Amino acid sequence: MKKSTILASLLLMSVFGKGQEKIRFNQSDDFYSIQKSYNASGEKITINNNFAELISSKPSTLNNSNKNETPLFSSRAWGQISNIDDNSLRTFELNYTFGSNANATIKLLNDDLETTKTINFNLPSTANDVQVLSQASKDIGPNDGKLKFIVFVHYFEGGTGPNYQKNVNYIFNEDGEKIGEIPGIGAFVRRKANQEIRLITRNLDYPTTGTFYKLYDQSFNLKKEYFVDKSFTNGYAGSPLSFINVNGQEKLVLSQYEKLFMTPSQEVTPDNHLVVKIADLDFNFEKEVKLNIQSKYPDKPKTFARANFATFPLTSQFSISNHTFNNDDQLEFLYAITYQDVLQDKMWSNYYVADEAGNILKSYEDNVIGEFALASIEGEKEQVGFVVGDGNVIQRYDMFDVADWSTKVSFSSIINNQMLKPTFNRFKNPENTTSYIFATNNGVREEGSNISYGLVNEYSVTGEFQKENRIYIGIDPQGFSVNLSDGLLSPYVYNEDAKREFTYAYFAKVPNSTKYYNTMSIGTGDGEVLFSKDGLGTLGDVNGTGFLRDHTNSRINKLGVYYKIPGATIISTEFYDVPFTNNLSTSNILKKDISIYIDRLNKTLNWTENAEIYEVYSMSGALLKSGKNTNKISTADMLNGVYIIKLKTKNFLSTKKFIVN
After folding, report:
1. Mean pLDDT by groups of 10 residues along the chain of 661 residues
2. Which keywords, in A-to-Z order, does the entry hold (predicted)?
């Protein structure tokens, strides 16, 4: 594929003006929002905006007839399947039709998004959901060396109400042959220590009385099933089924209440416990522990203490451990009590570590309203960032060493009149030191213009301010959201220089309208913009962003930008190769500026070097003109006023203001 098509809209913004106006944004419900909380002034903020973590399938719309252009996906879903044999990835596209002629088509794709195999199959006429699951293996089914993957289908049989629901998993090989099926809501694919494959499904009976977990061997023979009555999981805040490494072996872990959590009259059962059961991958139970979940607020009305296990951000490392929090040979269990105050509409969690006898070894009883795993850094201990607050008000952020069970540094939610968002992480500097990085809810506006920059701050491990990054967020923005997930903090995702780029979005009002639109951008902390796509085109508003990795799972190789027309159910996706081959790093941009001037006699705007691309905007942000390969444009059709021109030449990129009068 041509990679030059990627860069058609790349623009480098001008440096900051000397005079600046400080601004603070009302946080939007923008397209990165997953969980909601509130900042210290009660405004809504985004708790989790990690859109870089690609789920097994993404809704989308594929018109890939022209292989020389970056393809536009026009399918129902796309995503990647993980081969558990070697950690490689297989990209797929899914289309389906429901109704009397229900059917589905799966296309397997190579790293260039070219189709390598097309698989067609029929669906039940009552089907209303189909998904490609995220795990695959050559050892599922017959030993023929072919990769097999699983497709989940939900349908109805004998009626259309809740009691007539059916769930099934179809197993296909990479040649498109259906080799089997097993009932259940999806299927986990696991490998035992002896290399045998196990398939574990979750099944609900209708009307629902509980959950059946069913275990199948690699030939789809039912080996065992285990039933959990819903009475012991109602009101549970944790993960009832988890896979956790215990003493070097992956275990199947079930968790539930010991007794009924709450009576129909909302009376909490006294002296209840969180029960954690550890089994091998053949459902042979090896250990059961009971953990204390007694409320700190027994007399507070309508405040419920809910058990919570296996949802900690570093569950695989710390939910069940040994010799981490003490030196004896007992297992250690990290869990939470999540409180729900129904009357005040508040939720928060306290964290505990207990031994096999239920004795509390460690506790963190400040009110946690959000938590995030921070980036792993070689030579340093794993950390979690706790968002501490009172219901809807964030008070501070604790950078917490889990193994040491101690807060290394705390950040107030407001520092020097700047509001820190619960969007943060840590990274290793070129000097081999570690820094914390926070998005803020603040920005600056250039003097005499409506061009604004969002602020992203860096701090030392002891909390001292180190650096302010300013990312270009357009003309009169209403708010912005920046992605600080681990993989995107590397400066080498989009190009090969050592300058960090930020992946972010901002939203603004559509000119002369009451509507708003999103813009997704990639830019540096000094205002350069390498890439930008807005929601003003025919595809609809920018709705999100995702990434594909190459088939070896060694690097990100595709950036996907999602578009959605309001009211439509289809999401279109444009893919771009990364890293960008036209490297627009600062080292490749000449340190000079372009001159522009108005020729009033001939009514033209001229500039001193031929522009490969130009775009002219009104001060409200509306695109008025665009073109290629010229050093002037006519101003005869332009009203008197101030305008912005963005220029991309062979040597540099620039943004200028000019006046027509």
Report:
1. 23 31 46 26 26 27 29 65 95 91 94 93 95 95 96 94 93 96 96 96 86 96 95 94 94 97 85 97 97 95 95 94 94 98 95 98 97 94 97 95 98 96 94 95 82 94 97 89 92 88 91 86 92 85 88 90 77 85 37 65 84 80 84 89 79 72 77
2. Signal
Q: Is residue 381 part of a domain?
A: no
| Strand 77-83 with 129-137, pairing | parallel
The span from the CA of 491 to the CA of 108, in Å, is: 31
H/E element, 531: strand 529-534
- Adjacent-strand bridge partners of 350: 337
**Backbone angles phi and psi of 39, in degrees to 5:** -90, -175
Which one of 341, 373, 405 terminates a domain?
A: 373
**Residue range(s) defining the domain that contains residue 307:** 235-373
Cβ partners under 8 Å of residue 490, min gap 6: none
The C-alpha atoms of residue 323 and residue 29 are separated, in whole angstroms, by 43
Minimal CA–CA distance to 298: which of 263, 253, 339? Answer: 339
Whole-number Å distance between alpha carbons of 541 and 532 = 13
Instruction: Say how many C-beta atoms besides its own lie within 10 A of residue 414's C-beta.
Output: 18
